[in-house]
Amino acid sequence: MQPLRQPIRLSRDHRRQQILECALPLFARHGFAGTTTRRIADAAGISEALLFKHFPNKSAIYAAILADICSADPGLERLRAEPPSTRTLALIVRGMTHYFMTAADGSVAEGNQKLRLTLGSFIEDGEFAKVLFDKVEQVIAPIFIDSLKHAIEVGDARPGLASPRDLFWFAHHTVCTLAATQLPSLPSLDYPPSVRLEREVCSYILRGVGLTDAAIAAHAALDIPFESFESSVLEFAR
Amino acid sequence: MQPLRQPIRLSRDHRRQQILECALPLFARHGFAGTTTRRIADAAGISEALLFKHFPNKSAIYAAILADICSADPGLERLRAEPPSTRTLALIVRGMTHYFMTAADGSVAEGNQKLRLTLGSFIEDGEFAKVLFDKVEQVIAPIFIDSLKHAIEVGDARPGLASPRDLFWFAHHTVCTLAATQLPSLPSLDYPPSVRLEREVCSYILRGVGLTDAAIAAHAALDIPFESFESSVLEFAR
DNA sequence: CTGGTAAGTGAGTGGTCACTTACGCACCAT
DNA sequence: ATGGTGCGTAAGTGACCACTCACTTACCAG
Fold first, then answer.
1. Per-residue pLDDT for chain A (238 aa), expressed as one digit of tens each?
2. Any atom of strand D under 7 A from CB of A9?
3. Within 7 Å: CB of A8 and strand C?
């Protein structure tokens, strides 16, 4: 005789969290309208009825996911402690690029889904992207800005038309679409292998923000020592 | 007595085209799953039944739209006729930037919807973006590439790590996300007024691809003579 | 042991989905 | 004038949608 399926009982908080974790990749991949409550319930291994005991409606699940994902930005403190310098600038650009590229290739599930939700947000009301960008602007943009200003003072960079703040976002935009093109399982654009591609785009960005070729070359060797920083730089919010 | 509503009879081709035109903004704004055949029929002022006389199913409407939008790239010939030069390079970057920015502010409905569909494509299978990018790579990338090579030979640009082809796409990526942030009615990122923003991002891109500051300054006055070129540059495919 | 509470579900609800059927009627070559 | 062709619709179809209800089961404090 087959044993009856025992439902696994979880505490309210655990179950809620589990539902959100299961729903995230579905919303990220299929969008709000393309994700059904039935599939979310199946993914979480529970009945739809229970789903609606934890959330009043489908929108509330989506909203909770977007809220959760905004608040997470671990291990960034070490980077904030770095002094403003040309080296730090190169480190940020390199870290940002690497973060986006690994997000695109799916090896960092969280980054992958954040990117998808951000792109989806642009199409809809832009609200999620706005909240996320506000956070990024508070947390990592200042380090970039201070470092760029410092680089200009030291002579490693030429001042330009755009403010350092705008240049930070231009750098972000470059890698954002780049990563987006690599998001689908069959990439929308062919590029060199990622190690080479990352270097190419870094040098484009560093030139774009005004760094001299000499300064760029001086910090090109960042590739190896960068390893030790990887864990901190790799994870900063988007 | 109220007159009976007379259905407006159109030829097969006209009706088909009209359906596609009405469906495009719906798919662009709400995605595939978020757009119902009922709403498409309403937008076109016809019954759902007629819709399914013209297309076998909903997917076919979507596919026809994507196919149509790829084939349209008017008035680019004049730009193709330009000789490879630093000036042409600046013109392309300026034109591309302007095209994306006006697409984002909604003043060019077609560009706006192309951008939305492209972003949606990244989230899904990337197929549409791939086809579109193939086309762009054939049509405008060569002009950019030749011009950049020329600029390097002449001494207006320094050679860099990345190939001119990759640099072309980096430039594209920069303005693509930039436009995406300005797509929602409440933009996801605050920026200076668009005239100033366009100049800022152009100088970032031109520096990024390796142009010397002198060469950039020499072509900054492109703002005014650019007018005459507007109609051709403005419309190139994405 | 027991009664209260909270986690859990099977079987629905009305509404909407993509899509179909059966039929009306305008147009035009004969 | 007329019959065939083809544009057009009203009124459906079963499937699936978000969401609810009546009810069962596990856990735990007294």
1. 333 345 688 999 999 999 999 999 999 999 999 999 999 999 999 999 999 999 999 999 999 999 999 876 655 666 777 899 999 999 999 999 999 999 999 888 889 999 999 999 999 999 999 999 999 999 999 999 999 999 999 999 999 999 999 999 999 999 999 999 999 999 999 999 999 999 999 999 999 999 999 999 999 866 544 443 444 444 443 3
2. yes
3. yes
What CA–CA distance (Å, rounded) separates B100 from B110?
A: 11
Single-letter amino acid, residue A236: F
* Domain chopping of chain B, boundaries: 12-70, 74-233
Indicate yes or no: strand C within 7 A of the C-beta of B57: yes
Q: Which residues on A lie below 8 Å from B187 (Cβ)?
A: 126, 130
Domain A12-70 is classified in which CATH homologous superfamily?
Homeodomain-like (1.10.10.60)
Q: How far is B187 from chain A (nearest CA, A)?
A: 7
Residues of A in contact with B183 (CB under 8 A): 122-123, 126
Q: Do A123 and B188 touch (CB under 8 A)?
A: no
- Cβ contact A43 with chain D strand, < 7 A: no
Nearest CA to CA, how far is B27 from chain A (Å)? 11
Written in H, E and C, the secondary structure of chain B is CCCCCCCCCCCHHHHHHHHHHHHHHHHHHHCCCCCCHHHHHHHHCCCHHHHHHHCCCHHHHHHHHHHHHHHCCCCCHHHHHCCCCHHHHHHHHHHHHHHHHHHHCCCCHHHHHHHHHHHHHHHCCCHHHHHHHHHHHHHCHHHHHHHHHHHHHHCCECCCCCCHHHHHHHHHHHHHHHHHHCCCCCCCCCCCCHHHHHHHHHHHHHHHCCECHHHHHHCHHHHCCHHHHHHHHCCCCC
- Whole-number CA gyration radius for chain A: 21
For B21 and D10, how far is CA from C1' in angstroms? 25
Residues 9-48/B with CB within 7 Å of nucleic chain C are 9, 35-38, 48
CB contact under 8 A, A187 and B123: no
Residues of B in contact with A172 (CB under 8 A): 177
List of chain B residues whose C-beta atoms are within 8 Å of the C-beta of residue A207:
160, 207-210
Name the nucleotide with the smallest C1'–CA separation from A47.
C9
pTM (two decimals): 0.91
Q: Per the structure block, which two tokens stand in for A116?
A: 């998808």
- Residue A117 contacts residue A66 (beta carbons within 8 Å): yes
Distances (CA, A) of A216 to A18, A32, A219, B155, B212: 45, 43, 5, 20, 15
